[in-house]
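Here comes a specimen:
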Amino acid sequence: MAMVNASTSIFLAMEHGKKGQKYCFDKVMKQIPWNEQGLIAAIAQDAQTKEVLMLAWVNAEALIETLTTKRVCYWSRSRQTLWRKGESSGYHQQLIDAKLDCDGDAVLFSVQQHGPACHTLRPSCFYLGLELTQVSILSNPLSNTNKISYDS
């Protein structure tokens, strides 16, 4: 494990790290710059296609549960509770790997998505194409049903 001066950000130290170098998970977790609500952004990306599926939030508990169970768990800001992706809809995300960004304020989950990722039943939450003069719908829902799933 790399030794880091306690007054130095572990993320600053890791900027100078070499491939394969390891750091203590607990020390890294303690230095993640969680926001005022104790959250960091979490991006889900399809492990095979590399398509960005969604953006959500995790707290420390959700991140540890995700890493432990390999089933993606987020924090629901609207419900103020853990949100186990697909818990009621069945459209879960199997974790393939997880990566923190360079300053620790975002995590990238590489996932195997089972069913639609978006509550609109689309494959990705990023289905609205932006141009200066218009916004276009880029994909159809995967299901013929009109049922919107707020647990997708």
Q: What stands out?
A: The two ends are 38 Å apart (CA to CA). Helices lie at 10-14, 25-31, 60-69.
